[in-house]
Amino acid sequence: MSGRRFCGVDNYGVVAAAIAASFLMQGCYLRHRVEEIEQSGITVAVGLPQSAAKETASSAEVEESALVAYKDQISNEIVAYDKLNEIRVEATSANVAEREGKIEIAFEVEVPSLLMDSRWQLRLKPLLLLPATASAPADTLALDHIYITGKRFREQQLAGYDRYNSYLGSILPEDTSATGLFAYGRQFSSFMERHSGGNSLGADWESARNHYSKRWLIERNSRLIGQRSQMYGRFVKEPMTIVGVRRDTVVESGCNSVKYRFVEQLAAPVGRKRIELLLQGAIRGQGRDLCRIAPSGRVEYYISSLTSLAKRETKYKLQIIERNIADSGSLNILYSPASAVVESGLGRNAEELRKMVEKCARLAADSAICIDSVLILSSSSPEGSYRINSRLSQERADSLAAYLSAELPAEMPRALIRTRGMGEDWQGLFALVQQENGLPVKEILATSAISNPERREALLATKGYYQELKSHIYPKLRRSLFKWYAHRRGMVKDTLHTFIPDTIYMRGLEALLALNYEEAATLLAPYRDLNGAIALLCTKRNVEALELLLALPQSAERDYMVAIALSRRGESSAALDFYRSAVNLDKRMEFRGNLDPEIHLLTNKKY
Description:
The chain is an alpha+beta fold. About 40% of the residues lie in helices and about 25% in strands. It contains 20 helices and 19 strands. β11 and β12 (about 290-295) form a beta hairpin. α13 (about 505-515) packs antiparallel against α14.
Protein backbone atom coordinates (compact mmCIF):
# COMPACT_ATOMS: atom_id res chain seq x y z
CA MET A 1 0.00 0.00 0.00
CA SER A 2 1.44 3.35 -0.94
CA GLY A 3 1.01 6.60 0.90
CA ARG A 4 0.04 5.21 4.33
CA ARG A 5 -1.82 7.88 6.26
CA PHE A 6 -2.47 8.50 9.93
CA CYS A 7 -4.65 11.41 11.06
CA GLY A 8 -4.27 12.96 7.63
CA VAL A 9 -0.44 13.01 7.77
CA ASP A 10 1.74 10.94 5.41
CA ASN A 11 4.63 10.55 7.78
CA TYR A 12 4.50 8.51 10.96
CA GLY A 13 7.66 10.18 12.24
CA VAL A 14 6.16 13.65 11.98
CA VAL A 15 3.03 12.54 13.82
CA ALA A 16 5.01 10.75 16.51
CA ALA A 17 7.18 13.81 16.99
CA ALA A 18 4.12 16.03 17.23
CA ILE A 19 2.51 13.75 19.82
CA ALA A 20 5.74 13.57 21.80
CA ALA A 21 6.07 17.33 21.70
CA SER A 22 2.49 17.71 22.86
CA PHE A 23 3.04 15.39 25.82
CA LEU A 24 6.30 17.15 26.63
CA MET A 25 4.65 20.56 26.60
CA GLN A 26 1.77 19.27 28.71
CA GLY A 27 4.20 17.64 31.13
CA CYS A 28 6.17 20.89 31.47
CA TYR A 29 2.95 22.82 32.04
CA LEU A 30 1.74 20.41 34.73
CA ARG A 31 5.12 20.42 36.49
CA HIS A 32 5.07 24.22 36.54
CA ARG A 33 1.54 24.29 38.01
CA VAL A 34 2.37 21.62 40.60
CA GLU A 35 5.48 23.52 41.71
CA GLU A 36 3.39 26.65 42.06
CA ILE A 37 0.92 24.81 44.33
CA GLU A 38 3.64 23.17 46.42
CA GLN A 39 5.46 26.49 46.93
CA SER A 40 2.31 28.40 47.84
CA GLY A 41 1.13 25.75 50.33
CA ILE A 42 -2.46 26.44 49.26
CA THR A 43 -5.02 23.85 50.23
CA VAL A 44 -8.76 23.17 50.39
CA ALA A 45 -10.74 24.86 53.13
CA VAL A 46 -13.33 22.97 55.17
CA GLY A 47 -15.83 24.68 57.45
CA LEU A 48 -19.35 24.65 58.77
CA PRO A 49 -22.54 26.03 57.24
CA GLN A 50 -24.05 28.92 59.14
CA SER A 51 -26.90 26.78 60.49
CA ALA A 52 -24.47 24.28 62.00
CA ALA A 53 -22.05 26.77 63.55
CA LYS A 54 -21.83 27.47 67.25
CA GLU A 55 -23.09 30.86 68.39
CA THR A 56 -19.57 31.81 69.47
CA ALA A 57 -18.07 31.14 66.03
CA SER A 58 -16.52 34.08 64.15
CA SER A 59 -17.95 34.90 60.75
CA ALA A 60 -16.92 36.98 57.76
CA GLU A 61 -19.80 38.53 55.88
CA VAL A 62 -18.73 37.61 52.36
CA GLU A 63 -21.14 36.52 49.64
CA GLU A 64 -20.11 33.11 48.25
CA SER A 65 -21.58 30.86 45.59
CA ALA A 66 -22.22 27.41 47.09
CA LEU A 67 -23.29 24.05 45.70
CA VAL A 68 -25.47 22.13 48.16
CA ALA A 69 -25.33 18.36 47.70
CA TYR A 70 -27.35 15.68 49.52
CA LYS A 71 -26.46 12.01 49.44
CA ASP A 72 -29.28 9.48 49.10
CA GLN A 73 -28.78 6.95 51.92
CA ILE A 74 -30.17 4.04 49.86
CA SER A 75 -28.62 4.53 46.43
CA ASN A 76 -25.50 6.40 47.70
CA GLU A 77 -25.98 8.94 44.93
CA ILE A 78 -26.27 12.73 44.97
CA VAL A 79 -29.95 13.32 44.36
CA ALA A 80 -30.07 17.14 44.33
CA TYR A 81 -27.86 20.18 44.44
CA ASP A 82 -28.62 23.88 44.13
CA LYS A 83 -26.61 27.08 43.94
CA LEU A 84 -26.95 29.28 47.00
CA ASN A 85 -25.76 32.74 47.91
CA GLU A 86 -25.24 33.03 51.62
CA ILE A 87 -23.00 34.42 54.33
CA ARG A 88 -19.73 32.51 54.66
CA VAL A 89 -19.16 31.25 58.18
CA GLU A 90 -15.64 30.45 59.35
CA ALA A 91 -16.73 28.18 62.19
CA THR A 92 -14.54 25.35 63.44
CA SER A 93 -16.91 23.50 65.79
CA ALA A 94 -20.54 22.49 66.00
CA ASN A 95 -22.88 20.40 68.13
CA VAL A 96 -24.67 17.37 66.69
CA ALA A 97 -27.30 15.21 68.33
CA GLU A 98 -27.06 11.44 68.44
CA ARG A 99 -30.51 10.00 67.89
CA GLU A 100 -31.37 6.35 67.23
CA GLY A 101 -27.67 5.52 67.05
CA LYS A 102 -26.97 7.99 64.22
CA ILE A 103 -25.56 11.49 63.85
CA GLU A 104 -25.81 13.96 60.98
CA ILE A 105 -22.86 16.20 60.21
CA ALA A 106 -22.85 19.12 57.78
CA PHE A 107 -19.73 20.67 56.29
CA GLU A 108 -18.64 22.97 53.49
CA VAL A 109 -15.67 22.44 51.19
CA GLU A 110 -14.16 25.44 49.40
CA VAL A 111 -11.77 24.70 46.54
CA PRO A 112 -9.57 27.64 45.41
CA SER A 113 -9.15 28.28 41.71
CA LEU A 114 -5.42 27.49 41.84
CA LEU A 115 -6.24 23.83 42.59
CA MET A 116 -8.53 23.47 39.57
CA ASP A 117 -7.23 22.84 36.08
CA SER A 118 -8.67 21.41 32.89
CA ARG A 119 -5.77 18.94 32.57
CA TRP A 120 -5.99 17.19 35.94
CA GLN A 121 -8.34 15.76 38.53
CA LEU A 122 -8.34 16.96 42.13
CA ARG A 123 -9.23 14.09 44.48
CA LEU A 124 -10.35 15.06 47.98
CA LYS A 125 -10.86 12.56 50.78
CA PRO A 126 -12.83 13.67 53.87
CA LEU A 127 -11.60 11.91 57.00
CA LEU A 128 -13.31 11.61 60.38
CA LEU A 129 -10.82 11.36 63.24
CA LEU A 130 -12.13 9.42 66.24
CA PRO A 131 -10.11 10.13 69.40
CA ALA A 132 -9.09 7.33 71.72
CA THR A 133 -11.28 6.43 74.70
CA ALA A 134 -10.77 4.26 77.75
CA SER A 135 -12.22 1.27 75.87
CA ALA A 136 -11.21 1.94 72.24
CA PRO A 137 -8.08 3.21 70.44
CA ALA A 138 -8.04 6.20 68.14
CA ASP A 139 -9.49 5.46 64.72
CA THR A 140 -10.06 7.07 61.32
CA LEU A 141 -13.18 6.79 59.17
CA ALA A 142 -12.94 7.70 55.46
CA LEU A 143 -16.03 9.29 53.90
CA ASP A 144 -16.82 9.25 50.19
CA HIS A 145 -14.36 11.08 47.92
CA ILE A 146 -14.97 14.40 46.21
CA TYR A 147 -13.56 14.77 42.69
CA ILE A 148 -12.98 18.04 40.83
CA THR A 149 -12.28 16.83 37.28
CA GLY A 150 -10.78 19.01 34.56
CA LYS A 151 -12.65 19.15 31.27
CA ARG A 152 -9.69 17.92 29.18
CA PHE A 153 -8.97 15.21 31.79
CA ARG A 154 -12.56 13.98 31.43
CA GLU A 155 -12.35 14.09 27.62
CA GLN A 156 -9.24 11.89 27.78
CA GLN A 157 -11.07 9.48 30.13
CA LEU A 158 -13.99 9.20 27.71
CA ALA A 159 -11.66 8.84 24.71
CA GLY A 160 -9.98 5.90 26.48
CA TYR A 161 -13.32 4.20 26.99
CA ASP A 162 -14.23 4.85 23.34
CA ARG A 163 -11.01 3.18 22.16
CA TYR A 164 -11.63 0.20 24.45
CA ASN A 165 -15.24 -0.14 23.28
CA SER A 166 -14.01 -0.09 19.67
CA TYR A 167 -11.64 -2.91 20.59
CA LEU A 168 -14.50 -4.89 22.11
CA GLY A 169 -16.53 -4.28 18.96
CA SER A 170 -13.86 -6.02 16.90
CA ILE A 171 -14.43 -9.28 18.79
CA LEU A 172 -16.86 -11.64 17.10
CA PRO A 173 -19.53 -13.41 19.19
CA GLU A 174 -18.20 -16.66 20.61
CA ASP A 175 -21.40 -18.55 19.73
CA THR A 176 -21.20 -17.77 16.00
CA SER A 177 -22.59 -20.77 14.06
CA ALA A 178 -20.44 -23.14 12.02
CA THR A 179 -21.78 -21.77 8.72
CA GLY A 180 -21.43 -18.15 9.85
CA LEU A 181 -18.46 -15.86 10.21
CA PHE A 182 -16.11 -18.61 11.42
CA ALA A 183 -16.54 -20.88 8.37
CA TYR A 184 -16.52 -20.81 4.60
CA GLY A 185 -20.27 -21.10 4.40
CA ARG A 186 -20.80 -21.93 0.70
CA GLN A 187 -18.16 -24.67 0.54
CA PHE A 188 -19.36 -26.24 3.76
CA SER A 189 -23.03 -26.14 2.67
CA SER A 190 -22.14 -27.71 -0.69
CA PHE A 191 -20.20 -30.48 1.09
CA MET A 192 -23.18 -31.12 3.35
CA GLU A 193 -25.53 -31.45 0.36
CA ARG A 194 -23.27 -33.89 -1.46
CA HIS A 195 -22.84 -36.18 1.51
CA SER A 196 -26.25 -35.94 3.15
CA GLY A 197 -27.48 -39.34 4.27
CA GLY A 198 -24.00 -40.70 5.04
CA ASN A 199 -22.94 -42.24 1.66
CA SER A 200 -19.96 -44.43 0.95
CA LEU A 201 -17.51 -41.61 1.66
CA GLY A 202 -18.42 -41.93 5.31
CA ALA A 203 -18.08 -38.21 5.94
CA ASP A 204 -17.31 -37.14 9.49
CA TRP A 205 -19.35 -33.95 9.89
CA GLU A 206 -17.25 -32.58 12.73
CA SER A 207 -14.03 -33.10 10.76
CA ALA A 208 -15.62 -31.51 7.72
CA ARG A 209 -16.67 -28.46 9.68
CA ASN A 210 -13.14 -28.08 11.06
CA HIS A 211 -11.74 -28.44 7.55
CA TYR A 212 -13.88 -25.58 6.22
CA SER A 213 -13.38 -23.34 9.28
CA LYS A 214 -11.58 -20.03 9.05
CA ARG A 215 -8.87 -21.01 11.48
CA TRP A 216 -7.05 -17.68 11.22
CA LEU A 217 -10.25 -15.88 12.20
CA ILE A 218 -10.91 -18.19 15.14
CA GLU A 219 -7.34 -17.79 16.38
CA ARG A 220 -7.47 -14.03 16.00
CA ASN A 221 -10.78 -13.82 17.84
CA SER A 222 -9.50 -16.02 20.67
CA ARG A 223 -6.44 -13.80 20.97
CA LEU A 224 -8.59 -10.67 21.16
CA ILE A 225 -10.76 -12.24 23.86
CA GLY A 226 -7.72 -13.25 25.90
CA GLN A 227 -6.27 -9.71 25.73
CA ARG A 228 -9.36 -7.86 27.00
CA SER A 229 -7.96 -7.15 30.46
CA GLN A 230 -4.58 -6.10 29.05
CA MET A 231 -6.16 -3.79 26.47
CA TYR A 232 -8.42 -2.22 29.08
CA GLY A 233 -5.32 -1.15 31.02
CA ARG A 234 -3.73 0.13 27.81
CA PHE A 235 -6.66 2.24 26.65
CA VAL A 236 -8.31 3.30 29.92
CA LYS A 237 -5.49 5.07 31.75
CA GLU A 238 -7.82 6.80 34.21
CA PRO A 239 -10.94 4.73 34.98
CA MET A 240 -14.03 6.69 35.97
CA THR A 241 -14.88 5.85 39.57
CA ILE A 242 -18.47 5.83 40.82
CA VAL A 243 -18.45 3.70 43.97
CA GLY A 244 -17.11 5.59 46.97
CA VAL A 245 -17.33 8.98 45.23
CA ARG A 246 -19.71 11.56 46.62
CA ARG A 247 -19.35 14.18 43.91
CA ASP A 248 -17.52 14.47 40.57
CA THR A 249 -17.66 17.98 39.08
CA VAL A 250 -16.17 18.86 35.67
CA VAL A 251 -14.44 22.27 35.54
CA GLU A 252 -12.36 24.28 33.11
CA SER A 253 -9.11 26.09 33.77
CA GLY A 254 -9.37 29.60 35.12
CA CYS A 255 -12.75 29.15 36.84
CA ASN A 256 -13.45 30.80 40.17
CA SER A 257 -13.23 29.05 43.52
CA VAL A 258 -16.13 26.75 44.22
CA LYS A 259 -17.82 25.74 47.44
CA TYR A 260 -19.81 22.58 48.15
CA ARG A 261 -22.05 21.86 51.09
CA PHE A 262 -22.61 18.28 52.23
CA VAL A 263 -24.81 16.55 54.77
CA GLU A 264 -23.66 13.11 55.93
CA GLN A 265 -25.63 10.72 58.13
CA LEU A 266 -23.58 8.00 59.78
CA ALA A 267 -23.55 5.64 62.73
CA ALA A 268 -22.64 7.45 65.92
CA PRO A 269 -19.19 6.42 67.20
CA VAL A 270 -19.77 4.52 70.44
CA GLY A 271 -18.31 6.12 73.55
CA ARG A 272 -16.94 9.22 71.81
CA LYS A 273 -18.17 12.72 72.62
CA ARG A 274 -16.07 14.53 70.01
CA ILE A 275 -14.95 13.83 66.44
CA GLU A 276 -12.92 15.86 63.96
CA LEU A 277 -13.19 16.27 60.19
CA LEU A 278 -10.36 17.19 57.83
CA LEU A 279 -9.64 16.82 54.12
CA GLN A 280 -6.66 15.22 52.42
CA GLY A 281 -6.17 15.40 48.70
CA ALA A 282 -4.01 14.76 45.68
CA ILE A 283 -3.78 16.00 42.10
CA ARG A 284 -4.07 13.25 39.50
CA GLY A 285 -2.77 13.49 35.95
CA GLN A 286 -0.88 11.54 33.28
CA GLY A 287 -1.84 8.24 34.95
CA ARG A 288 -0.30 9.05 38.36
CA ASP A 289 -0.55 11.30 41.40
CA LEU A 290 1.30 14.50 40.50
CA CYS A 291 1.38 15.79 44.08
CA ARG A 292 -0.43 15.77 47.37
CA ILE A 293 -1.96 18.93 48.74
CA ALA A 294 -1.56 19.99 52.33
CA PRO A 295 -4.29 18.72 54.72
CA SER A 296 -7.08 21.16 55.42
CA GLY A 297 -7.85 22.65 58.80
CA ARG A 298 -10.01 20.64 61.19
CA VAL A 299 -13.66 20.96 62.10
CA GLU A 300 -14.82 19.59 65.46
CA TYR A 301 -18.21 18.07 66.18
CA TYR A 302 -19.38 17.64 69.77
CA ILE A 303 -21.84 14.77 70.07
CA SER A 304 -24.81 15.17 72.37
CA SER A 305 -26.34 11.84 73.42
CA LEU A 306 -29.03 11.04 75.96
CA THR A 307 -26.88 8.14 77.11
CA SER A 308 -24.61 10.65 78.87
CA LEU A 309 -27.42 10.97 81.46
CA ALA A 310 -27.44 7.22 82.16
CA LYS A 311 -26.73 5.98 85.68
CA ARG A 312 -23.78 3.61 85.40
CA GLU A 313 -23.74 2.10 88.87
CA THR A 314 -23.96 -1.66 89.26
CA LYS A 315 -27.48 -2.75 90.07
CA TYR A 316 -27.98 -5.50 92.64
CA LYS A 317 -30.89 -7.81 93.33
CA LEU A 318 -31.84 -9.82 96.38
CA GLN A 319 -31.10 -13.53 96.21
CA ILE A 320 -32.40 -16.03 98.76
CA ILE A 321 -30.07 -19.01 99.06
CA GLU A 322 -31.53 -22.23 100.44
CA ARG A 323 -29.32 -24.58 102.45
CA ASN A 324 -30.94 -27.69 101.04
CA ILE A 325 -30.72 -28.30 97.31
CA ALA A 326 -32.86 -30.66 95.27
CA ASP A 327 -33.02 -31.31 91.57
CA SER A 328 -34.39 -33.92 89.25
CA GLY A 329 -33.96 -35.10 85.71
CA SER A 330 -35.78 -37.37 83.33
CA LEU A 331 -33.71 -40.15 81.86
CA ASN A 332 -35.36 -41.71 78.85
CA ILE A 333 -33.73 -45.07 79.48
CA LEU A 334 -35.72 -47.58 77.44
CA TYR A 335 -36.11 -51.27 78.33
CA SER A 336 -37.19 -54.23 76.28
CA PRO A 337 -40.61 -55.69 77.27
CA ALA A 338 -40.44 -57.76 80.49
CA SER A 339 -36.69 -56.97 80.82
CA ALA A 340 -34.71 -55.07 83.49
CA VAL A 341 -31.39 -55.16 81.63
CA VAL A 342 -29.81 -51.74 80.88
CA GLU A 343 -29.12 -51.94 77.12
CA SER A 344 -26.85 -49.08 75.98
CA GLY A 345 -27.58 -49.86 72.33
CA LEU A 346 -31.37 -49.46 72.65
CA GLY A 347 -32.79 -46.17 71.35
CA ARG A 348 -30.90 -43.17 72.77
CA ASN A 349 -29.86 -45.06 75.92
CA ALA A 350 -26.11 -44.46 75.39
CA GLU A 351 -26.55 -40.67 75.28
CA GLU A 352 -28.95 -40.64 78.22
CA LEU A 353 -26.62 -42.77 80.35
CA ARG A 354 -23.71 -40.50 79.53
CA LYS A 355 -25.66 -37.41 80.63
CA MET A 356 -26.60 -39.07 83.94
CA VAL A 357 -22.99 -40.04 84.71
CA GLU A 358 -21.69 -36.55 83.80
CA LYS A 359 -24.32 -34.87 85.99
CA CYS A 360 -23.37 -36.98 89.01
CA ALA A 361 -19.66 -36.39 88.35
CA ARG A 362 -20.19 -32.60 88.32
CA LEU A 363 -22.08 -32.78 91.61
CA ALA A 364 -19.35 -34.89 93.21
CA ALA A 365 -16.65 -32.43 92.04
CA ASP A 366 -18.44 -29.33 93.37
CA SER A 367 -16.69 -28.42 96.62
CA ALA A 368 -19.45 -25.96 97.59
CA ILE A 369 -22.08 -28.67 98.09
CA CYS A 370 -22.33 -31.96 99.89
CA ILE A 371 -24.45 -34.72 98.27
CA ASP A 372 -26.93 -36.37 100.64
CA SER A 373 -28.46 -38.94 98.27
CA VAL A 374 -29.31 -39.84 94.69
CA LEU A 375 -32.71 -41.46 94.08
CA ILE A 376 -33.39 -43.56 90.96
CA LEU A 377 -37.01 -44.28 90.05
CA SER A 378 -38.11 -46.65 87.29
CA SER A 379 -41.50 -47.49 85.77
CA SER A 380 -43.12 -50.05 83.47
CA SER A 381 -45.82 -50.09 80.80
CA PRO A 382 -49.33 -51.46 81.69
CA GLU A 383 -49.45 -54.68 79.65
CA GLY A 384 -49.30 -57.88 81.68
CA SER A 385 -49.72 -58.52 85.40
CA TYR A 386 -49.80 -55.48 87.68
CA ARG A 387 -47.86 -57.39 90.40
CA ILE A 388 -45.18 -58.50 87.96
CA ASN A 389 -44.87 -55.03 86.50
CA SER A 390 -44.38 -53.51 89.96
CA ARG A 391 -41.55 -55.95 90.67
CA LEU A 392 -40.09 -55.31 87.18
CA SER A 393 -39.96 -51.55 87.76
CA GLN A 394 -38.00 -52.08 91.00
CA GLU A 395 -35.59 -54.42 89.21
CA ARG A 396 -35.03 -51.79 86.52
CA ALA A 397 -34.19 -49.17 89.17
CA ASP A 398 -31.75 -51.57 90.83
CA SER A 399 -30.16 -52.44 87.47
CA LEU A 400 -29.66 -48.76 86.64
CA ALA A 401 -28.17 -48.10 90.09
CA ALA A 402 -25.66 -50.91 89.53
CA TYR A 403 -24.70 -49.39 86.17
CA LEU A 404 -24.30 -45.94 87.73
CA SER A 405 -22.20 -47.27 90.64
CA ALA A 406 -19.72 -48.79 88.21
CA GLU A 407 -19.32 -45.49 86.33
CA LEU A 408 -19.21 -42.94 89.18
CA PRO A 409 -15.97 -41.31 90.34
CA ALA A 410 -14.50 -42.40 93.69
CA GLU A 411 -15.52 -39.09 95.34
CA MET A 412 -19.19 -40.16 95.31
CA PRO A 413 -20.01 -43.05 97.73
CA ARG A 414 -22.21 -45.79 96.23
CA ALA A 415 -24.15 -45.98 99.48
CA LEU A 416 -25.76 -42.64 98.58
CA ILE A 417 -27.67 -44.23 95.69
CA ARG A 418 -31.23 -45.30 96.52
CA THR A 419 -33.83 -46.94 94.27
CA ARG A 420 -37.61 -47.13 94.01
CA GLY A 421 -39.95 -48.92 91.60
CA MET A 422 -42.98 -46.84 90.54
CA GLY A 423 -44.94 -49.69 88.92
CA GLU A 424 -47.14 -49.07 85.90
CA ASP A 425 -46.93 -45.47 84.69
CA TRP A 426 -50.58 -44.68 83.98
CA GLN A 427 -50.19 -40.91 84.49
CA GLY A 428 -47.45 -40.92 81.89
CA LEU A 429 -49.71 -42.83 79.51
CA PHE A 430 -52.53 -40.28 79.86
CA ALA A 431 -50.10 -37.39 79.32
CA LEU A 432 -48.60 -38.95 76.18
CA VAL A 433 -52.00 -39.80 74.68
CA GLN A 434 -52.97 -36.12 74.75
CA GLN A 435 -49.90 -35.29 72.66
CA GLU A 436 -50.56 -37.99 70.03
CA ASN A 437 -52.73 -37.32 66.99
CA GLY A 438 -55.34 -39.84 65.85
CA LEU A 439 -56.12 -41.41 69.23
CA PRO A 440 -59.52 -41.06 70.98
CA VAL A 441 -58.18 -38.98 73.88
CA LYS A 442 -61.46 -38.63 75.80
CA GLU A 443 -62.22 -42.32 75.60
CA ILE A 444 -58.77 -43.30 76.87
CA LEU A 445 -58.84 -40.69 79.67
CA ALA A 446 -62.25 -41.99 80.74
CA THR A 447 -60.67 -45.35 81.68
CA SER A 448 -58.99 -43.60 84.63
CA ALA A 449 -62.32 -44.04 86.45
CA ILE A 450 -61.62 -47.82 86.62
CA SER A 451 -59.70 -48.31 89.88
CA ASN A 452 -58.33 -51.79 89.03
CA PRO A 453 -55.34 -51.26 86.66
CA GLU A 454 -55.57 -54.82 85.23
CA ARG A 455 -59.26 -54.31 84.30
CA ARG A 456 -58.33 -50.93 82.80
CA GLU A 457 -55.62 -52.57 80.67
CA ALA A 458 -57.98 -55.40 79.64
CA LEU A 459 -60.53 -52.86 78.41
CA LEU A 460 -57.93 -51.02 76.32
CA ALA A 461 -56.77 -54.34 74.83
CA THR A 462 -60.21 -54.78 73.21
CA LYS A 463 -59.96 -51.51 71.26
CA GLY A 464 -58.84 -51.14 67.68
CA TYR A 465 -56.22 -48.57 68.60
CA TYR A 466 -54.53 -50.83 71.19
CA GLN A 467 -51.75 -51.90 68.82
CA GLU A 468 -50.89 -48.24 68.27
CA LEU A 469 -50.71 -47.78 72.04
CA LYS A 470 -48.38 -50.74 72.37
CA SER A 471 -46.08 -49.69 69.53
CA HIS A 472 -45.93 -45.91 70.10
CA ILE A 473 -46.88 -45.13 73.71
CA TYR A 474 -45.94 -48.14 75.86
CA PRO A 475 -42.19 -48.14 75.04
CA LYS A 476 -41.96 -44.57 76.38
CA LEU A 477 -43.40 -45.68 79.73
CA ARG A 478 -40.55 -48.10 80.38
CA ARG A 479 -38.26 -45.37 81.68
CA SER A 480 -36.31 -44.08 84.67
CA LEU A 481 -36.06 -40.80 86.55
CA PHE A 482 -33.47 -39.64 89.02
CA LYS A 483 -33.43 -37.06 91.81
CA TRP A 484 -30.52 -35.83 93.86
CA TYR A 485 -30.50 -34.12 97.22
CA ALA A 486 -27.65 -32.06 98.70
CA HIS A 487 -26.85 -29.16 101.05
CA ARG A 488 -24.41 -26.25 100.93
CA ARG A 489 -21.23 -26.83 102.87
CA GLY A 490 -20.69 -24.64 105.93
CA MET A 491 -24.24 -23.22 105.86
CA VAL A 492 -26.10 -23.64 109.14
CA LYS A 493 -29.28 -21.63 108.61
CA ASP A 494 -31.99 -22.92 106.29
CA THR A 495 -31.94 -19.71 104.19
CA LEU A 496 -29.45 -16.93 103.49
CA HIS A 497 -30.34 -13.49 102.07
CA THR A 498 -27.68 -11.80 99.92
CA PHE A 499 -27.37 -9.27 97.12
CA ILE A 500 -25.83 -10.17 93.77
CA PRO A 501 -25.33 -8.14 90.56
CA ASP A 502 -28.43 -8.10 88.37
CA THR A 503 -26.95 -9.52 85.17
CA ILE A 504 -30.03 -8.80 83.04
CA TYR A 505 -30.05 -5.13 84.06
CA MET A 506 -26.31 -4.78 83.53
CA ARG A 507 -26.65 -6.33 80.08
CA GLY A 508 -29.33 -3.75 79.31
CA LEU A 509 -27.08 -0.92 80.53
CA GLU A 510 -24.25 -2.26 78.38
CA ALA A 511 -26.58 -2.28 75.35
CA LEU A 512 -27.68 1.28 76.13
CA LEU A 513 -24.11 2.59 76.26
CA ALA A 514 -23.32 0.68 73.05
CA LEU A 515 -26.31 2.43 71.36
CA ASN A 516 -28.19 -0.86 70.87
CA TYR A 517 -31.40 0.84 71.88
CA GLU A 518 -33.99 -1.79 70.99
CA GLU A 519 -32.23 -4.40 73.12
CA ALA A 520 -31.70 -1.84 75.90
CA ALA A 521 -35.40 -0.88 75.94
CA THR A 522 -36.47 -4.54 76.10
CA LEU A 523 -34.17 -5.25 79.06
CA LEU A 524 -34.39 -1.97 80.99
CA ALA A 525 -37.99 -0.76 80.58
CA PRO A 526 -39.43 -3.31 83.09
CA TYR A 527 -37.20 -1.83 85.83
CA ARG A 528 -39.05 1.52 85.60
CA ASP A 529 -36.03 3.70 86.31
CA LEU A 530 -34.11 6.53 84.65
CA ASN A 531 -32.08 4.24 82.39
CA GLY A 532 -35.24 2.53 81.20
CA ALA A 533 -36.69 5.96 80.34
CA ILE A 534 -33.56 6.87 78.36
CA ALA A 535 -33.84 3.64 76.36
CA LEU A 536 -37.51 4.39 75.61
CA LEU A 537 -36.71 7.94 74.49
CA CYS A 538 -33.93 6.65 72.26
CA THR A 539 -36.41 4.32 70.53
CA LYS A 540 -38.93 7.19 70.16
CA ARG A 541 -41.41 5.56 72.52
CA ASN A 542 -42.05 9.03 73.90
CA VAL A 543 -45.44 8.38 75.52
CA GLU A 544 -44.14 5.40 77.52
CA ALA A 545 -41.01 7.34 78.45
CA LEU A 546 -43.01 10.34 79.67
CA GLU A 547 -45.32 8.15 81.76
CA LEU A 548 -42.31 6.43 83.34
CA LEU A 549 -40.44 9.70 84.00
CA LEU A 550 -43.36 11.44 85.70
CA ALA A 551 -43.63 8.50 88.11
CA LEU A 552 -39.99 8.93 89.21
CA PRO A 553 -38.77 11.25 92.01
CA GLN A 554 -37.85 14.72 90.80
CA SER A 555 -34.23 15.25 89.74
CA ALA A 556 -32.36 17.41 87.27
CA GLU A 557 -31.93 14.46 84.90
CA ARG A 558 -35.58 13.49 85.14
CA ASP A 559 -36.85 17.03 84.41
CA TYR A 560 -34.40 17.39 81.52
CA MET A 561 -35.70 14.25 79.82
CA VAL A 562 -39.32 15.20 80.55
CA ALA A 563 -38.59 18.43 78.65
CA ILE A 564 -37.39 16.42 75.64
CA ALA A 565 -40.38 14.06 75.73
CA LEU A 566 -42.85 16.97 75.96
CA SER A 567 -41.05 18.87 73.19
CA ARG A 568 -41.38 15.86 70.89
CA ARG A 569 -45.11 15.81 71.62
CA GLY A 570 -45.39 19.48 70.62
CA GLU A 571 -45.95 20.75 74.19
CA SER A 572 -43.16 23.33 73.94
CA SER A 573 -44.27 25.66 76.74
CA ALA A 574 -44.51 22.86 79.32
CA ALA A 575 -41.26 21.42 78.02
CA LEU A 576 -39.48 24.72 78.61
CA ASP A 577 -40.78 24.83 82.20
CA PHE A 578 -39.31 21.41 82.92
CA TYR A 579 -36.00 22.41 81.30
CA ARG A 580 -35.79 25.50 83.52
CA SER A 581 -36.57 23.30 86.52
CA ALA A 582 -33.68 21.01 85.55
CA VAL A 583 -31.33 24.01 85.32
CA ASN A 584 -32.46 25.26 88.74
CA LEU A 585 -31.71 21.85 90.24
CA ASP A 586 -28.33 21.52 88.49
CA LYS A 587 -26.65 24.40 86.65
CA ARG A 588 -24.74 21.90 84.50
CA MET A 589 -27.99 21.15 82.67
CA GLU A 590 -27.84 24.61 81.07
CA PHE A 591 -24.45 23.84 79.54
CA ARG A 592 -25.74 20.46 78.37
CA GLY A 593 -28.85 22.07 76.90
CA ASN A 594 -26.67 24.41 74.84
CA LEU A 595 -25.02 21.35 73.31
CA ASP A 596 -28.31 19.55 72.67
CA PRO A 597 -30.01 20.69 69.43
CA GLU A 598 -33.45 19.60 70.71
CA ILE A 599 -33.16 21.82 73.80
CA HIS A 600 -31.41 24.57 71.84
CA LEU A 601 -34.40 24.82 69.49
CA LEU A 602 -36.73 24.85 72.48
CA THR A 603 -35.01 27.77 74.23
CA ASN A 604 -34.91 29.85 71.02
CA LYS A 605 -38.69 29.75 70.55
CA LYS A 606 -40.81 32.80 71.45
CA TYR A 607 -43.85 32.43 73.70
